[in-house]
Task: structure prediction
Amino acid sequence: MATPEELEELKESFDYNDANGDGRIEFDEFVRMLQGLDAFGSREEARVGFDSVDGDHDGSIDFDEFVAWWSDR
Result:
């Protein structure tokens, strides 16, 4: 479980990567995030990663999914 300080940092990161401010990270935002982390291989690999983070498979990553992803790392 993340500490309050870690959650605050994750929220800042989430908000930064949520480029359009809709409270979700869509695939293209996810790709830009991976590129910023120097972790981008290909769009196909990014899609596999995105789909694994998108736990409810609604086509976007919400904050809870983002926290779960970072907590598993």
